[in-house]
Amino acid sequence: MLNGTEILTTAQMRAIESAAMDSGAVTGLELMERAGAAVVAALLERWPDPGRAFVLCGPGNNGGDGFVIARLLKDRGTEVTTLFLGERDRLSPDAAVNHDRWQQMLGDGDFWLPDPAEDTDLTSPDFEIGSSDVVIDAMLGTGANRPLPSTWANHLSDAVEGGNPVIAVDALSGLDLDSGRYAIDGRERSHIRATLTVTFQRAKVGHKLEEGPDRSGELVVADIGLEQDVRRHFDGPALRHEPVPSIRLTSPALARPLSKSSGHKFDHGHALILAGAAGRGGAARLAARAALRCGAGLVTLACPRDAIAENAASLPDAVMLRPLDEPDDLRKLLADKRINAICAGPGLGVERAATLLPVLAEDARDPKPVTWVGNQKFTFDLPFRAGRPTVLDADALTAGAAQGQAFLQGLHVNTILTPHEGEFARVFPDLGARLKQKHPTLSTLDAVREAADRAKAVILLKGPTTVISANAPRLRGKPPVEAWINPAAGPDAVPWLATAGSGDVLAGIITGILARGLPPLDAAATGAWLHAAAARRFGPGLIADDLPEELPGVFRDLGL
Ligand SMILES: NC(=O)C1=CN([C@@H]2O[C@H](COP(=O)(O)OP(=O)(O)OC[C@H]3O[C@@H](n4cnc5c(N)ncnc54)[C@H](O)[C@@H]3O)[C@@H](O)[C@H]2O)[C@@H](O)CC1
Ligand SMILES: Nc1ncnc2c1ncn2[C@@H]1O[C@H](COP(=O)(O)OP(=O)(O)O)[C@@H](O)[C@H]1O
Ligand SMILES: [K+]
């Protein structure tokens, strides 16, 4: 299996569940029981003896899980209040069975509340969420398809305001498990969040994107016995040469190929960092240091002649300096075919970037490009543009955006664009505008995938959660990775990373890894993971300059 954990879209989860049930290996009722039991187990681990629980049950199978949870908690002596926000006759057969089992169990001390649309006195103290030790949100899960009604949101709001732990079943209700957006009818309530979310078999994309990490609280992924079905979902089609692309979370395992075996310095590649004018070289220097720390055999920084003294004064001796005043100087530098990774953008200056981009595009017409397809290297002509692995960041993206289609046409499968949100919107204005809509119709992941498709390149969109996707040709039979998600939010938060220059370091890290020979999509994912890991290891007080210096510690921790 490839590095990283696959996470699932809601459609994939539904397909996996149906396939499991169709195979006869498990029934929906069994799955619901396992799901409910998994939530109760995770709950009791954290709150060992809840005297009172309040369970909010929605109109679908998420609500069905809620009825199982109510029954299991009552079985162990917890006093349970349920609020059912649906209609018995519209429940699925499995949820209806659990509804009825729960109803039959009710006795003194349990309060059965029908739909509040009917005449229920919700002001009675017996119904108050505030007197519960735990509140279980089983209103909506993977089937949520519109904003959460504000009356339903009020229950969550009461719980959070009352300081009661909220345990979300599969998802905090209102969270879209594909986009990670949170939508409530009426006014937005940013304080609503789960203390714990228990999801089933695999995390869903929406737990990791946008608001997902913050809204979900601690995320527990409970095994409900569908692991073989998950594998079958991905590996079965691969055996038939119809691989299903996966969406994966970055993990430390990605960095494993960076382990340095002994070898000539060129075995570890030669990275070229294009720098800007005197007085503006800090960003490129950060990138150069980061590339060096990632083990690039050689790092050359190319800058205007009059900036050489300044760069020499503040760079390690290991970084070579070369003059680059005119576009033709870049052509000459690129005649050295040992240069196998390029970084253009940090501190480059938009005008200078505009004159150098065409040279990089020209270079990609090399008749014998090195091309990565999956993990295999090709050095012959392929029916798509390929060229030297190149990171385009910052000023190169701004300059590129101004060049429009010509810029996109100059890209190739070994190009990695590393925009933040603003730069992304400059390069892909329509996608940027759609992401900014009040109710966006596409997720960040969709936007990045679409951008990668148009650019025929790797796109890494920076933010608290970084999303990476590639449009690279695939080898038949190899399960492709479609996207990587590097979460640095919620429980994985590394807020110190939001510091000036940290993006320049990321560009340098990725360039260094490219020089080491990793394929572009892997290099981008590995770089995003290392970048956050370095920040996490350093902790508060971080400035961008600390990041490259922290990398050796990260590598040591990994035993590389
Ligand atoms: N399918 C399965 O085999 C399993 C499903 N499980 C549970 O089932 C859930 C999925 O069940 P469903 O597909 O029934 O979906 P949900 O229970 O998430 O919601 C679907 C229902 O909610 C309504 N609805 C959607 N959005 C709404 C909104 N904003 N306001 C009010 N009503 C809204 C829909 O009309 C439908 O009636 C999972 O999240 C998980 O908790 C688990 O029991 C494990 C097994
Ligand atoms: N709140 C945050 N939590 C974690 N990482 C963040 C956060 N905000 C930004 N980042 C990361 O910090 C880096 C900032 O890069 P960028 O926007 O290019 O800034 P700069 O131009 O200052 O270098 C990116 O790698 C991004 O993923
Ligand atoms: K829920």
UniProtKB/TrEMBL annotation:
<keyword id="KW-0630">Potassium</keyword>
<keyword id="KW-0521">NADP</keyword>
<feature type="binding site">
    <location>
        <begin position="462"/>
        <end position="466"/>
    </location>
    <ligand>
        <name>AMP</name>
    </ligand>
</feature>
<feature type="binding site">
    <location>
        <position position="504"/>
    </location>
    <ligand>
        <name>(6S)-NADPHX</name>
    </ligand>
</feature>
<keyword id="KW-0520">NAD</keyword>
<feature type="binding site">
    <location>
        <position position="173"/>
    </location>
    <ligand>
        <name>K(+)</name>
    </ligand>
</feature>
<dbReference type="GO" id="GO:0052855">
    <property type="term" value="F:ADP-dependent NAD(P)H-hydrate dehydratase activity"/>
</dbReference>
<keyword id="KW-0456">Lyase</keyword>
<feature type="binding site">
    <location>
        <position position="170"/>
    </location>
    <ligand>
        <name>(6S)-NADPHX</name>
    </ligand>
</feature>
<dbReference type="GO" id="GO:0046872">
    <property type="term" value="F:metal ion binding"/>
</dbReference>
<feature type="binding site">
    <location>
        <position position="503"/>
    </location>
    <ligand>
        <name>AMP</name>
    </ligand>
</feature>
<dbReference type="InterPro" id="IPR017953">
    <property type="entry name" value="Carbohydrate_kinase_pred_CS"/>
</dbReference>
<dbReference type="InterPro" id="IPR029056">
    <property type="entry name" value="Ribokinase-like"/>
</dbReference>
<keyword id="KW-0479">Metal-binding</keyword>
<comment type="similarity">
    <text>In the C-terminal section; belongs to the NnrD/CARKD family.</text>
</comment>
<feature type="binding site">
    <location>
        <position position="283"/>
    </location>
    <ligand>
        <name>(6S)-NADPHX</name>
    </ligand>
</feature>
<protein>
    <recommendedName>
        <fullName>Bifunctional NAD(P)H-hydrate repair enzyme</fullName>
        <ecNumber>4.2.1.136</ecNumber>
        <ecNumber>5.1.99.6</ecNumber>
    </recommendedName>
</protein>
<feature type="binding site">
    <location>
        <begin position="141"/>
        <end position="147"/>
    </location>
    <ligand>
        <name>(6S)-NADPHX</name>
    </ligand>
</feature>
<comment type="function">
    <text>Catalyzes the dehydration of the S-form of NAD(P)HX at the expense of ADP, which is converted to AMP. Together with NAD(P)HX epimerase, which catalyzes the epimerization of the S- and R-forms, the enzyme allows the repair of both epimers of NAD(P)HX, a damaged form of NAD(P)H that is a result of enzymatic or heat-dependent hydration.</text>
</comment>
<dbReference type="Pfam" id="PF03853">
    <property type="entry name" value="YjeF_N"/>
</dbReference>
<feature type="binding site">
    <location>
        <position position="347"/>
    </location>
    <ligand>
        <name>(6S)-NADPHX</name>
    </ligand>
</feature>
<feature type="binding site">
    <location>
        <position position="137"/>
    </location>
    <ligand>
        <name>K(+)</name>
    </ligand>
</feature>
<comment type="similarity">
    <text>In the N-terminal section; belongs to the NnrE/AIBP family.</text>
</comment>
<comment type="function">
    <text>Catalyzes the epimerization of the S- and R-forms of NAD(P)HX, a damaged form of NAD(P)H that is a result of enzymatic or heat-dependent hydration. This is a prerequisite for the S-specific NAD(P)H-hydrate dehydratase to allow the repair of both epimers of NAD(P)HX.</text>
</comment>
<dbReference type="GO" id="GO:0005524">
    <property type="term" value="F:ATP binding"/>
</dbReference>
<dbReference type="InterPro" id="IPR030677">
    <property type="entry name" value="Nnr"/>
</dbReference>
<dbReference type="GO" id="GO:0046496">
    <property type="term" value="P:nicotinamide nucleotide metabolic process"/>
</dbReference>
<keyword id="KW-0067">ATP-binding</keyword>
<feature type="binding site">
    <location>
        <position position="62"/>
    </location>
    <ligand>
        <name>K(+)</name>
    </ligand>
</feature>
<dbReference type="InterPro" id="IPR000631">
    <property type="entry name" value="CARKD"/>
</dbReference>
<feature type="domain" description="YjeF C-terminal">
    <location>
        <begin position="248"/>
        <end position="558"/>
    </location>
</feature>
<dbReference type="GO" id="GO:0110051">
    <property type="term" value="P:metabolite repair"/>
</dbReference>
<comment type="subunit">
    <text>Homotetramer.</text>
</comment>
<dbReference type="InterPro" id="IPR004443">
    <property type="entry name" value="YjeF_N_dom"/>
</dbReference>
<feature type="binding site">
    <location>
        <begin position="61"/>
        <end position="65"/>
    </location>
    <ligand>
        <name>(6S)-NADPHX</name>
    </ligand>
</feature>
<keyword id="KW-0413">Isomerase</keyword>
<dbReference type="Pfam" id="PF01256">
    <property type="entry name" value="Carb_kinase"/>
</dbReference>
<keyword id="KW-0547">Nucleotide-binding</keyword>
<dbReference type="GO" id="GO:0052856">
    <property type="term" value="F:NAD(P)HX epimerase activity"/>
</dbReference>
<feature type="domain" description="YjeF N-terminal">
    <location>
        <begin position="13"/>
        <end position="232"/>
    </location>
</feature>
<keyword id="KW-0511">Multifunctional enzyme</keyword>
<dbReference type="InterPro" id="IPR036652">
    <property type="entry name" value="YjeF_N_dom_sf"/>
</dbReference>
